[in-house]
Amino acid sequence: MAESDGQERTEDATPRRREQAREKGQVPRSRELASVAVLILGAVSLMWFGQSLGEALMALMTRLFTLSRAEVFDTSELMLVVVGELLHLILPLGLVLLLLFFSGLAGSAGLGGISFSWEAARPKLSKMSPIAGVKRMFGTQGLVELLKSILKVLLVGGVASYLVYINLQDFFELTIETFPQNLYHAMDILLNFVLLVCCSLLIVVAIDVPFQIWQHNEQLKMTKQEVKDEYKETEGRPEVKGRIRMLQREMAQRRMMAEVPQADVVVTNPEHYSVALRYNSDMDSAPVVVAKGSDFTALKIREIAAEHDVAIVPAPPLARALYFSTELEQQIPDGLFTAVAQVLAYVFQLKQYKKGRGRRPTRPEDAYLPIPPDLRHD
């Protein structure tokens, strides 16, 4: 197995490695697939359009061998005759060539798709090295090509011999048929022979295509170190990723802290948790969590709330339930609606009291705040 820097290439190629290889023109190709596709569709095209092509050629030859004296000595008249006859030949010949073109294109692109690379087209001195050429001749690829050539000779020879054997009676009939029936019969036999012999080469294609895919995958295999290096290049080094995550957390925290002044109340477990809630009846169908945090973040939320005169209500069971069951910018769970409603009612009454309206409200006791068992976090 190939080695690189003392390491074996045991890892399958990554998507990026495959993309880079494709950009360099390194894609699996099967010459057998392309050549067999051209041979088979070429035989089919002759079977389809061969009669029209033969008739056009015969008409062309007949016309050119029956030129009048005036046509032979008049260049312009001769050109008109030649061009006219060639126009009759263009359609059948063009159909055959067009089918051959598309069969060659489909056969070449059938494995690996359509790919063009300037780097692959650029001449390389390494490919002109006699030593490298000898290594290719006696390497794995050379052995495979030799085996394919032997198999093709055996297939073509075997199928052709079998076809001759089973069609001996038709060959004998050719000797007693009259012209041009014998010629047409011979052409039918020949085209059938060509098509069947070409189809026999599909066995070679069935062997070559999987081999080319396997060989391409083997050539693209990577060492463990190459996989690690590529991951570092594409995903970033661990320390850089850690720094990015830290900056993202800081930015998210700053955005969260900027929302605290817009809150209506901050529910706290005085020692560990703080959750800031907003409820605007014009835009919110239920109270929304705008900020939450634990320990130092919880303390910072309370400081900002105090600076902006946002009510702070100690309610440890409710604060823990809100902290563990909610996400930022999302509504509170249905099970906490009643408890949060009591806290908000207290806060709104407290605001009215501070404006000199009504009497001072009583803060709801923790025991009277209904919290479902599945949302409790003691």
TrEMBL record:
Q: Which InterPro entries match?
A: FlhB, T3SS_substrate_exporter, T3SS_substrate_exporter_C
User: Which SUPFAM superfamilies does this UniProt record tie to the protein?
Assistant: EscU C-terminal domain-like
Instruction: Identify the keywords attached in UniProt to this record, alphabetized.
Output: Bacterial flagellum biogenesis, Bacterial flagellum protein export, Cell membrane, Cell projection, Cilium, Flagellum, Membrane, Protein transport, Transmembrane, Transmembrane helix, Transport
Residue stretches spanning the membrane: 33-51, 89-118, 150-169, 189-214
Membrane topology per record:
Multi-pass membrane protein
Coiled-coil ranges from the UniProt annotation: none
Instruction: Spell out the subcellular localization from the entry.
Output: Cell membrane
- Region Disordered: start-end pairs: 1-27, 357-378
One Pfam family, short name please? Bac_export_2
The record, for NCBIfam families, names:
flhB
Q: Which family does it belong to?
A: Belongs to the type III secretion exporter family.
Protein function: Required for formation of the rod structure in the basal body of the flagellar apparatus. Together with FliI and FliH, may constitute the export apparatus of flagellin.
What protein name does the entry list?
Flagellar biosynthetic protein FlhB
Q: Which gene encodes it?
A: flhB
